[in-house]
Specification:
The chain starts with a strand and ends with a strand. The longest helix is centred in the C-terminal third of the chain and has 22 residues, at about 560-580. The radius of gyration is 26 Å and the shape is globular. The strands form 6 sheets. It has a 17-stranded antiparallel beta sheet that branches. About 20% of the residues lie in helices and about 35% in strands. The protein has 13 helices and 41 strands. It is an alpha+beta fold.
Amino acid sequence: MDRLRLPSSSNPLLDIQVGGGKATIVSLCAIDLAGAGAPARVQGSFALNTDSGRFEGADWHCAALSEHEGGAMLRQAVSGGALELVSAWAVDAATGVVSRNDSLSNTGRETAIVRRCLARFCLPAGNYEVYFQQSRWCNENQGAWQALRAGELALRCAPGRSAQGCTPYACIRNVETRRGLAVHVLPCGNWVIRFSAAPAADSLPFVAVELGLSDENLRLALRPGESLALPGLLFQELPGGEPHLAAPALHEHMLARHFSKAKPEAPVVYNTWFDEFELLDVPRLRRQLAAARAAGCEVFVIDAGWFGAAGASWWAQVGNWSEKTDAAFHGRMREFADEVRASGLGFGLWMEPERVGPEAPVRSRHPEWFVPAGASARFDLARPEAYAWLRGEIGRLVETYRLAWMKMDYNFEMDADSLSGSELSGYTALWRRMLDEIRAAYPGTFFEGCASGGLCLDAATLAHFDGHFLSDTIEPADALRISQGAFLRVPPGRITRWAGLRSQGPAAPRYCLSTAGSPDTVLVPGGALWEPAVTADLDFALLAAMPGMFGLTGDLAGLPPAVAARVREHVAFFKEWRRFIAGAAAHLLTTPELVSARSGWIAFQFQDPAGKAGLVFIYRLGVAAQAPRWRLRGLKPEARYAVRRALTADHESAIMSGTELMTAGFAADPASAGGSRASAAAVYVVSCA
């Protein structure tokens, strides 16, 4: 076979040509790649550095190219060497997403020390710009475009934290044609995406894109007969050159290929953290439990503060998973768990399994099990006894407290992995194996990932949890802006999030009303803490947490009856639609902006792939211009749809055709029914009439 086009058409998503013993990727996602005219140093589909030399472009010989259903297998070998690369390509014709999974094998008799092993493609000469996301605590997924005229742009993560520093996702487009690609790394360990402008003597620069396992500290010994599975890669064309227009196709692809066996929905959770943080007072918790039950919550989760030695901080005592005896439940948490279950809710706990604090007794008893990372440490999971201990502690907590939910946090940067030289890929593979074992052993428990919020929120990590937390800031506008960036990379219905509420009563007068006659003031955290707290419209705060896996936190017991009743209405609505949300693709009807953008409009259209039903979430942030008409996407042009505002007493709906909704759109301003509130939100149900 000397040419393979998938699917077979004049405009294939993947085009591979073989000639002269070499394999060339001619086009990817219908985007033409650079051919022989590119500088030799950026040619070829793989870049490998070992202690024996550098292998790229002409150094690779095509051993075989074969087609299988929906994909291709390309086998290449280093000319005259003993290293073989197998690239498994898959083409999802329905969504336009192309995937690549590489495996590097040592077929020789000598150990090879691998220092770089990156997939590569090269774009023709031109002017290009790159979209990538800066990501830090409470400011995850903050994307912007940057011109790439010369030199190199390397995107990396912090050690062990796949979405801290940058996220494993980027886009590149030609400035003139606006045609481009989105690239996604599905990381296992540290990762890198590198864009290099390769100048030619008489033209604009070519751009080489290399991506995969980080090469910053890579020094991996690949022994004879061993193989190294490299991070999975996904590629998409950018419709109109815009990242947000590629999101729904990615969601459909991931839900079908990566999350097909995931839990179909999540219970509505109440978490204690934003009540009084790590201070756990049992009488107060009982009041919160009663309020959570009345609100319709289904799980009650105790966050950090329940474990460790007397008088010690929870931060230093992580790894000591025995109950506190001098505070919190005083060693009687099982009794409280029974109370929770007796009230009709499941019981949940917070745990941070990967980090071990400096005061955890297990560190002094078994120092050989740990790899230091600052004051904290991680387990050396390659040691069977360390693996077994951690696996046993997680299982013990699930069984002892009959957990319906476990929140698994991760609050540190790891070491540089000088021990294995694998950029934490070996550690990550073992940790994920443990997660898979635990989820298989306890299928009735919901395992939620968290990493100081969303600092490990990537599609590969998410596939090993039942859901993953969005961000430690739960301020509604923050959460919405952070969501916009997250939705470019992961399916939104698998992301957990909270509305954190506290009431100040009628503390401030509404215009033209007395203080006593004004409605209750609802406060939400202004970030990851209650200082500062900010006022919020109740519907806005609740709907900001709804497009995903919905939860509550804060002082539910202190909410006045009218506010508590409105919370119940939102919880009931979410329960009606949660399975739909978990399996829906999301169209971003407004362009993503940074967290600092505190005014304007945000809208998401959650749609089933068949185009029969949808939810449209509309948010007004601050003082915004007049609401646009909301043009929907992905509907059946000939179908008739009913559009009605949910969570209102008005059940009237407008009937419009799919063509009308996609071209003219529908008018909706969430503030119109409630006056001139600075921020407001509404959700609309769109269903086949």
